[in-house]
Amino acid sequence: METKTIKAFGTEAADKPLHSLQINRRVPEPHDVEIEILYCGICHSDLHASRDEWGGTKYPIVPGHEIVGRVTNVGNHVTKFKVGDIAAIGCIVDSCRECDYCKEGMEQFCEPGNTIVFGSRDKNMGGYTFGGFSESIVADENYVLHVPAGLDLAAAAPLLCAGITVYSPLKHWKTGPGKKIGIIGIGGLGHLAIKIAKAMGAHVIVFTTSISKAEDAERLGADEVVLSTDARQMKKQSKLDMILDTVSANHNVNDYLKMLKVDGSLVLVGLPVDDISVEAFKLVKGRKSFSGSNIGGIAETQEMLDFCAAHNITAEIEMITMQQINEAYDRMEKGDVRYRFVIDMATLKN
Ligand code: NAP
Ligand code: ZN
Ligand code: ZN
């Protein structure tokens, strides 16, 4: 297989900062699209994985899974993209395409296992896949998304993971007019969840540990803002239909189970490292559900991009250079991001 060497940013160990390195990419096969990466968002999952917080990280790792760029080459069987198109890639770059879940458009739950953009076995080249903190990327056209015209490209990048990760459960749990939807945490996922839930027509209640973000939440579209460290404010909330939990660190979910109405659901998308403790009575009284959700399928990701374009939704971003990545990780760890870092990938060449 023909390959080419390109520049990337990554690391060989959990305790080592990200730095410049070189990786190989395949030259497009007949069904492949090659994209020059213009912008890549930084998700908390990139940080968890780089530092091996969940265990199992394959090194060297090149993170990055909120990718927007320009098509520079296509294989001779590609029909959906042409050179010059603006295209995007999220978490999933391949799957079996044959299992029940793939057939239903739920490639995120592919039974034999999907190929994630970084750290998955690379079926084409061997070794493990490398993500979007790189000059370019190659993927089968069926796993590449179209970016609707009119969206700011840098601010659209975070939709590829943060956007779909909140859109999918909000839709699944039937967010809409007349529903009281809670969002916990105003980070990359949380701030997009506020905007999307609001655009779906729900009454949106936001829970944050940060006073300064509480002051900003109404601007993002929240109907009510609760400082979660204030027990008095927390006690006032009741009868929520669904609460989406985007928190990246350990916290007490029982406080939120209490707030759900009968048959309500607390839905986890955040992935804290330690086990979560649930009080049985908090679920049993009120027939409540504690559940989770994982990104979204490819068709659903395109649907989300089209929804966001129709409602003029993009992320609030802080643009950084590739060289600022380690500082950005440290700030993200402290919850100090308004509200998503996006890397200007042109700076990778510096
Ligand atoms: P992020 O931008 O760092 O936001 C996380 C937010 O959680 C923070 O802004 C903060 O909000 C809140 N938080 C942090 N520490 C907290 C603590 N100790 N107690 C209470 N709240 C705390 O991260 P993100 O990129 O949105 O990702 C959030 C989580 O989702 C991560 O664990 C990530 O790995 C996971 N994730 C899951 C999926 C999936 O498919 N399920 C996809 C993408 C990401 P406030 O300042 O408002 O309190
Ligand atoms: Zn992510
Ligand atoms: Zn499958």
Give an overview of the whole structure.
The protein is an alpha/beta fold and 350 residues long. It folds into 2 domains: 3-160 and 296-349, Quinone Oxidoreductase, Chain A, domain 1, CATH 3.90.180; 162-292, Rossmann fold (3-Layer(aba) Sandwich). The chain is 24% helix and 27% strand. The chain contains 11 helices and 17 strands. It has helices at 44-50, 100-103, 153-156, 162-172, 188-199, 211-220, 231-235, 254-257, 280-284, 298-310, 325-333, and strands at residues 3-10, 19-26, 32-41, 67-74, 86-89, 92-94, 115-116, 136-140, 145-146, 180-184, 203-208, 224-227, 240-245, 260-268, 289-292, 317-320, 340-344. Strands 3, 4, 5, 8, 9, 16 and 17 form a 7-stranded mixed beta sheet that branches. Strand 14 (260-268), helix 9 and strand 15 (289-292) form a beta-alpha-beta unit. Helix 4 (162-172) crosses helix 5 and helix 4 packs across helix 10. The longest helix is centred in the C-terminal third of the chain and has 13 residues, at 298-310. The protein starts with a strand and ends in a 6-residue tail after the last strand. The model has no long low-confidence stretch (mean pLDDT 97). It binds NADP nicotinamide-adenine-dinucleotide phosphate (NAP) and zinc ion (2 copies). NADP nicotinamide-adenine-dinucleotide phosphate binds next to helix 1, helix 4 and helix 5.
Labels describing this entry:
single chain, 350 residues, alpha/beta, Quinone Oxidoreductase, Chain A, domain 1, Rossmann fold, 2 domains, 7-stranded mixed β-sheet, 11 helices, 17 strands, 24% helix, 27% strand, globular, binds NADP nicotinamide-adenine-dinucleotide phosphate, binds zinc ion
